[in-house]
Amino acid sequence: MTSNRRTFAIISHPDAGKTTLTEKLLLQGGAIHLAGEVKARGQARRARSDWMKIEQQRGISVTSSVMTFEKNGITFNLLDTPGHQDFSEDTYRTLTAVDSAIMVIDAAKGIEPQTLKLFEVCRLRSVPIITFVNKVDREGRDPFETLDEVADKLALDVSPQMWPIGMGGLFEGLLDFRTNAVARPEGASREYLGKRDQDAPIPDQYAEEIELARGGYPEFDLEAYRHGDLTPVYFGSALKNFGVEELIDAIARFAPPPRPQPAGDVEINPDYNEVTGFIFKVQANMDPMHRDRIAFMRQVSGTFKRGMKLVPSGLGKPIAIHSPILFFAQDRELADTAEAGDIIGIPNHGTLRVGDTLSEKNQVRFTGLPNFAPEILRRIALVDPTKTKQLRKALDDLSEEGVIQVFYPEIGSQWIVGVVGQLQLDVLVSRLEAEYKVEARLEASPFATARWLKGSDAALRTFAEFNRPNLAKDRDGDMVFMARSPWDVNYQQEKNPELTFSATKER
């Protein structure tokens, strides 16, 4: 039974309120009992998805976490994604594993650059989007202005499903168009505490705009939404609990169940007759006490049973999966079974990597999880040269996670790390120290970007003879051209038409 699964991500610009919304969704779903806490084994733990040290220091999400909760017979798999642009690779891969997304927009700021980028990734994969306009209890822009911006910038039809009665200091509640109930702020904190007025009279100063909002936009169309042509829009305040119930209800009613996934020229449907899935994320040291390493698998088809054997495409021989994990906030449970759409964590010691397909017969290869060419390259130098072995292990772990890429130059002994954004370098240094007890410096590199080389063995050998100082191997042993500038890439492409200089590498 897959129709009761909803696997979705939350996308937003930093500071739009995504982490708060995540927490309130978990609270509503009963996965946590107090905002910010989870009861697990008799002990209150942090339930925020921002569990890494650097995230706690900076207040940003730099990893993608998985949280599962159940409500009214529906299993919700929520994938939290980094909002910061420097982690676009991790976010891109996470968006390959979801069937829908919630786009969180700050009511005062509208669509910000990172929101736009993440939306484009969703559009590439036809991921349907529900829009949540957050922070309506604060001073913000006119709601019509926000709706028009979504329609114009994202080329989407917008269909408001609720409306704020006033905003900021004048905020008097939220009208649900479907039920005609108004959720009211209560008490000194002005939170939503569960009180709704059915068919409540609307103050005269808001009646006209509410009629315009009801009649001036397209009605909700399920097919248009699931095609990615229309977004239903919800207003609310995650901090004050407004709109959160309605949002969960919308995901349950509208968001698609597990969708087919591309595997080369074919698509694998959820009812395909064997268990298949793909690894979209690897995370080391989620539990520093146990130095664990979890591969996150999006199950695409079949009914998984604990202990069954699956073949990872990168290994070619079956492995038995004895301790698969489901994630409930930051608590974990052994998964006896899992269905298409579920995200299961597989503990392993380097066997599984991002992009691997897992299947019973090793006849399926899921596609579309690329590595991107790094935009920043740095040499890495140890403060204590005796820790070379620990550094190699750490770089292997972190590159398997997708936090960084590692390149081993053909000439010279200093390894080079590549990232998409500066913040990833900060995370690298922080995690080396916190998790691996390795102190390292990042030094300038002569290279500006990298390109994966593809071509015949003869052409690659000839190119290597003349360009060895500019060549490196990635962690798979594939040849990489280290370019000193974009001009350098173009020059070599023109000079070597028999080779492909690729900015992406698909696993």
From TrEMBL:
GO BP terms in the entry: regulation of translational termination
Keyword vocabulary terms for this entry: Cytoplasm, GTP-binding, Nucleotide-binding, Protein biosynthesis
Domain Tr-type G as annotated: residue spans: 3-259
Predominant subcellular localization, coarse grouping: cytoplasm
InterPro entries referenced in this protein's UniProt entry, alphabetically: EF-G-like_DII, EFG_III/V, G_TR_CS, P-loop_NTPase, PrfC, RF3_C, RF3_dom_3_sf, RF3_GTP-bd
Residues involved in GTP binding: 12-19, 80-84, 134-137
Gene3D superfamilies linked to this entry: P-loop containing nucleotide triphosphate hydrolases, Peptide chain release factor 3, domain III, Translation factors
Subcellular location(s) per record: Cytoplasm
Listed transmembrane segments: none
This protein's GO CC annotations: cytosol
Pfam family, one: EF-G_D2
GO molecular function: GTP binding; GTPase activity; guanosine tetraphosphate binding; translation release factor activity, codon nonspecific; translation release factor activity, codon specific
Function, as annotated: Increases the formation of ribosomal termination complexes and stimulates activities of RF-1 and RF-2. It binds guanine nucleotides and has strong preference for UGA stop codons. It may interact directly with the ribosome. The stimulation of RF-1 and RF-2 is significantly reduced by GTP and GDP, but not by GMP.
Annotated HAMAP family: Rel_fac_3
Family per record: Belongs to the TRAFAC class translation factor GTPase superfamily. Classic translation factor GTPase family. PrfC subfamily.
Name of this protein: Peptide chain release factor 3
Source organism of the structure: Alteraurantiacibacter buctensis
